[in-house]
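Title: Comparing notes on inverse folding

I've been comparing how different people in this forum approach sequence design from structure. To keep things fair, I'm posting one structure and asking everyone to reply with a full sequence. Here's the target:
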């Protein structure tokens, strides 16, 4: 298959004449979402890389956009997009109507990461906690787990499963059973990477998650020091201790 190169020279920022550096990308079908350094969020045509529209102009958020993604990336073309920001909010955008359909906020604290899953679930990592929202009821999160001692830089919902993976500046990876509200019961296992976690994810697909919903799938993490590790250490059961 031949590869076609296409170059975009610049992205227009939220302010006239200001450049916007690309901080986040997400794609679904023919849509490409681009989060910029001027707190801007825009949709592009994935094949031509031509701008379709800007969301929330002149700025989608009042602070840096830390993560952007489509609510159902596996669908042929998802019409819902989420953006997590240092302004303390997660916004869910209707790409068809080009408006914010919902704004999620629990407390005045930065939101570092977000991850969408099945059944309208959205996991969120904040300065102090891991939250789980049901997007059909945006008034408040359905779960709040304070299982880290520092900023939660990564959250990932397990594809096809009910586990939430969280990574933090405190160096810990936690696998959380989303069905459990109590923190003592919710934390399935803890891994200590011994460095701030910059990126993390599950290894294994939806079939594995359905086969063993209470058993943690293999994990992969990238630490701030540049070290990459798969299943960093054997997972210890129970929640982390202070």
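Reply #1:
Here's my take.
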């Amino acid at each position: 298959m031949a590869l076609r190169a296409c170059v975009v020279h610049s992205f227009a920022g939220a302010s006239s004449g200001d450049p916007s550096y690309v901080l986040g990308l997400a794609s679904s079908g023919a849509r490409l979402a681009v989060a910029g350094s001027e707190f801007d969020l825009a949709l592009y045509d994935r094949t031509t890389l031509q701008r379709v529209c800007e969301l929330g102009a002149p700025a989608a958020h009042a602070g840096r956009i830390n993560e952007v993604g489509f609510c159902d990336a596996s669908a042929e073309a998802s019409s819902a997009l989420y953006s997590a920001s240092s302004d303390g909010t997660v916004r869910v955008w209707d790409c068809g109507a080009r408006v914010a359909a919902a704004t999620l906020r629990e407390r005045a604290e930065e939101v570092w990461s977000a991850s969408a899953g099945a059944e309208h679930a959205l996991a969120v990592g904040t300065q102090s906690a891991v939250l789980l929202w049901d997007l059909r009821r945006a008034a408040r999160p359905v779960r709040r787990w304070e299982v880290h001692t520092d900023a939660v830089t990564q959250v990932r919902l397990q594809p096809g499963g009910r586990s939430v993976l969280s990574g933090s500046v405190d160096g810990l990876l936690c696998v959380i059973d989303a069905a459990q509200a109590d923190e003592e019961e919710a934390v399935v296992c803890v891994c200590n990477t011994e460095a701030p976690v910059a990126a993390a994810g599950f290894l294994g697909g939806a079939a594995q998650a359905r086969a063993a919903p209470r058993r943690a799938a293999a994990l992969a993490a990238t630490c701030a020091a540049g070290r990459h590790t798969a299943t960093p250490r054997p997972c210890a059961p129970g929640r982390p201790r202070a």
